[in-house]
Prior knowledge:
Elements: H1 7-30, H2 32-35, H3 40-54, E1 61-63, H4 64-78, H5 82-101, E2 106-108, H6 109-122, H7 124-142, E3 149-151, H8 152-161, H9 167-175, E4 183-185, H10 186-196
Helix pairs in contact: 1-3, 1-9, 1-10, 3-6, 4-5, 4-8, 5-7, 6-7, 7-10, 8-9
Amino acid sequence: MQKKKTTTSTTSEYESIVDHYILGFDLERASLNEMTSDNIEFLRKKWSYWFDTLDVNHDGKITKADVDYTLNQFPIVEGLSKIEGKLADDQIEKWWNTYILKGKHEVSKEGFLDDFEKGYTESKSNFIAIIKSLCEDMTNIIDADKTKMISLDNYVKAFKTVGLDNDKLLQKAFAHYKPSHGMISIQEYIDDWVVLL
């Protein structure tokens, strides 16, 4: 059984995560060269925010429990039928196993950061290709209506799937994209995440 944090603690956590993502996007948009520099500490800090988002139950490690939470939430949040939910579950589980757990039962924060650092330092181009693939596969799941666009609704639902359910903060983060007609393109979303990670 997963422990839930208090509302105040959770809200503060959400604010911190959203603020860090917005700051990260601003820094990267301002200077792509600086963002991709060899400043490993800066990169590890960014990757730690990604870990915190994926550690859905906030127990300091990523396990099957985090995967199961997203598997349970996605069909509910998206309002999918049982058949659609099963197809989405297969994609979601494959994503977690391919990019995050990588055959392990548990991933600690330090192990996650070390794995990202190793991949980055061994081959930046290969690392970027993997992150791009990770983001493309993630957005194929998020774009449940297959419009190649992400609406505020898609965005909020995606984060609710990993337990981030503060609508006001998610709206703030989405507005940062300056969406045209209330939508952002999947490609813009992917490009930002590739740069962020």
